Amino acid sequence: MSATRICALSELEQDTALRVEVEGVPMAVVLDGNGEVHAIGDTCTHGEVSLAEGFVDGDTLECWAHGSAFSLTTGHPLNLPAYEPVPVYVVTIEGDDVLVDPAVTRPTN
Ligand code: FES
Q1: Which positions, given as ranges, span the membrane (predicted)?
Q2: Which of 3, 83, 86, 105 could pair with 101 as two cysteines, CB 3.0-4.6 Å apart?
Q3: Which of 42, 46, 48 to mutate to test the pocket of ligand 1 (most atoms within 8 A of CB)?
C-alpha cells in the first residue's frame, strides 16, 4: 500500500482534529501549535469513540468521553481510563498535500 492524499495542508486548522478514513482505517489528523502534522488512530482504545471529536492540547488529543489524553507522537494515553495506545501513522507533506500510508506506523514505545 502506498501513501494516500488525505487532505490539503491548508484545510487543517491549528489545534483542531480532522477525522479521515484511508482504506477503511479511521485517523485523526492534527496540525499542532508547532506547525507539525500528526495522524493517529481515530478510535479511542477505551470506549471506541472518535478521538477527532475531542480536544487538542499541546501534543495530545484528549478523548471527549472520559478524558484520556493520547500523545500525538507516541499514541500512548497519558492518563486513565484508556491504557492501550492508538497507532501513529507516518505523515508526509508534499506541497499542500498531506499524505499518509495506513500500513506504516511509527514505533510507539
Ligand atoms: S471512551 Fe475515550 S476515554 Fe473513555
Answers
A1: none
A2: 3
A3: 46
- Ligand 1 atom closest to residue 81's alpha carbon, by position in its atom list: 3
Rounded distance between C-alpha atoms, residue 8 and residue 81, angstroms: 33
For the domain covering 4-105, report its CATH number: 2.102.10.10
Ranges of H-type helices in the chain? none
Which of 60, 66, 80, 83 to mutate for ligand 1's pocket (most ligand atoms within 8 Å of CB)?
66
Per-residue pLDDT of the chain (109 residues), as tens digits, is: 689 999 999 999 999 999 999 999 999 999 999 999 999 999 999 999 999 999 999 999 999 999 999 999 999 999 999 999 999 999 999 999 999 998 888 766 5
Model pTM? 0.95
